[in-house]
Amino acid sequence: MPKRYLPDWSDLDKRPLPEWYDRAKVGIFLHWGVFSVPSFGSEWFWNNLESMNIKYIEFMKKNYPPGYTYQDFAHMFTAEFFDPDEWADLFNKSGAKYVVLTSKHHEGYTLFPSKRSFSWNAVDIGPHRDLVKDLADAVREKAMKFGVYHSLFEWYNPIYKEDKFKLFETQNFPKTKLWPDLQQLVNDYNPSVIWADGDWEALDTYWNSTAILAWLYNDSPVKDEIVVNDRWGIGINCHHGDFFNCVDRYNPGKLQPHKWENAFTLDKVSWGYRRNMILNEVMTIKEVLRELVSTVSCGGNVLINVGPTKEGTISPIFQERLLSLGDWLNINGEAIYNTSPWIYQNDTLENENVWYTCTKLQYNAQSPTAVPGPNETVNAVYAIFLKWPENNILWKIVNGSTELSLPDYASVTSQHAWSLKLTHK
Ligand SMILES: C[C@@H]1O[C@@H](Oc2ccc([N+](=O)[O-])cc2)[C@@H](O)[C@H](O)[C@@H]1O
């Protein structure tokens, strides 16, 4: 009999992390929705407009007729160039092993035909197609895992607003909207990741988060495969969940005891697409590699976000960054995928531009992010250089700290980062 989890955090926390997730290291995050139509400011467009933010009021005044509402944008979310196979091919070439799509952001518009979001979903209005299904199929075709981002709250859902007005003493929204929607998502699309968000106005007891997690872990069609993040109510983030996102762009720079994920967006200003984005606001490949290497070395995964356009295209500058990452991983992927943190993460004293990973003879399923213990065999240590060491003095980096022999293999791959494999003689 497989273990059954009780709907409380202490029991849910006992669940071992499904191995695929720790091995994957790299994922792609997509913020796509009605906000991709104005594609101005950020994916918080609607909220900024409702809060009378002057920048947004003026944008509306200048570009749209009086009385134009946010809902009026939905029919322009056309996705006519959306080719899921093309996207999946790009993500696969970037080296990503999983893809997480916004099934619903705070605006409440669903990219799948939610049975409780009449005329506010991608089949009823806009693309007139099930975007979640089409992308899920294409991503799996390339042997990547598919996951969904799902906002717990919806800014302007009247049922949510009523619960909130009653100080969350009623739970009509989670009962009649959120959980039925999430169960529809899980049953119809079998996602491997549920990336919860928009949890921060209420406690996990309002959301009833532990009950849905117990269902996911015990009885859902994805019970062996599913991983969830940590945004399940006030005070839960960084404490409970299969992996921790903590805050956005979380990158603590030191080893973490629990599996974590660094979610960041290539457009430094926004998660959703912005038509007026300039080159300076886009992360460079050097910055992307620094995030990747420092994160993986400390036990994390990276989830790299791009915002597609309302037409269903991915801007060439994002394509270029993703393909550069893929080129680097093609050569250096051995130092990233399936690795574990080593006993040291980086050379803070000697050279802060060197980060380590290692591969163990046996994968530690119980604590995947633990450093090798005294009884564990390390197959290889990887030193990843974000800057070529001065005077080529490579030996200095490992001198004295380990019994490792001189490097037997080096790859000089690009001007951005190099990896070096160190093995026993
Ligand atoms: C991935 C992002 O998640 C949330 O934003 C957050 C949520 C939590 C924190 N946090 O805990 O620091 C910061 C931004 C969303 O509001 C945002 O639009 C985007 O989807």
UniProtKB/TrEMBL annotation:
Coiled-coil stretches: none
UniProt-listed GO biological process terms: fucose metabolic process; glycoside catabolic process
Domain annotation Glycoside hydrolase family 29 N-terminal: ranges: 3-334
Lineage of origin: Eukaryota, Metazoa, Ecdysozoa, Arthropoda, Hexapoda
Primary enzyme class: hydrolase
Any one annotated GO CC term: lysosome
Species, as recorded: Eumeta variegata
EC number: 3.2.1.51
Encoding gene (name): Fuca
Gene3D superfamilies hit by this protein: Glycosidases (3.20.20.80)
Cross-referenced InterPro entries: FUC_metazoa-typ (IPR016286), GH (IPR017853), Glyco_hydro_29 (IPR000933), Glyco_hydro_29_N (IPR057739)
Stated role: Alpha-L-fucosidase is responsible for hydrolyzing the alpha-1,6-linked fucose joined to the reducing-end N-acetylglucosamine of the carbohydrate moieties of glycoproteins.
Family: Belongs to the glycosyl hydrolase 29 family.
Pfam families referenced in this protein's UniProt entry, alphabetically: Alpha_L_fucos
Protein name per Swiss-Prot or TrEMBL: Putative alpha-L-fucosidase
GO molecular function: alpha-L-fucosidase activity
Keywords, alphabetical: Glycoprotein, Glycosidase, Hydrolase, Signal
